[in-house]
TrEMBL record:
This is U1 small nuclear ribonucleoprotein 70 kDa. It is found in: Nucleus speckle; Nucleus, Nucleoplasm. Gene3D superfamilies: 3.30.70.330. Its main location: nucleus. GO terms for biological process: mRNA splicing, via spliceosome. It comes from Thamnophis sirtalis. Pfam families: RRM_1, U1snRNP70_N.
Amino acid sequence: MGRGGRPATEESVRCFKMTQFLPPNLLALFAPRDPIPYLPPLEKLPHEKHHNQPYSGIAPYIREFEDPRDAPPPTRAETREERMERKRREKIERRQQEVESELKMWDPHNDPNAQGDAFKTLFVARVNYDTTESKLRREFEVYGPIKRIYMVYNKHSSKPRGYAFIEYEHERDMHSAYKHADGKKIDGRRVLVDVERGRTVKGWRPRRLGNSQIGCEPGLLPVPLHKCRDIHCRV
């Protein structure tokens, strides 16, 4: 038989017979190695060990345990779901406190960044971050002459925030842009337009301060002040 249990071929048998004619110095290379020397184990096998004392139960040690009547009542640990619910509730409470403190300081009528006539100003959101002021001017000048454009940037990174304010020379031009510019595609993105509600809508506040208009009935929404120039409608 050859290697792997396969039958030996004639060529392999012929090679095996030829090795006996090799000189002694080459035959020594094919000699088997010496067997591994036997060494006694360092420890006895488990079934060979002899224990000095037999195994015993734990009944003699029961008296060492604490009496259940003297033990304090067990304390109930907080589960994972309860811990997550507690953290969520604490986060909501912290955010509510922050909103209340920021809402006290928020006054859109005394904002130094809010300049110009609010009734002639158009709010443009979802602006492409690569869109420039000149591009916005070209797109919105079709509705009327523009007095100024204010693009909002991040104070720390100086990157655009994606929205801008456009003040027109005439209020009717702002109304025209408000009606026709919504959904207009500029640099691959459809913009969203709206009036400047901070100074023109009574009771309005931004979403970061908990906009209460979301989910309200249409009849309960505040009336835009640009639709009623009456002094009683203003804040």
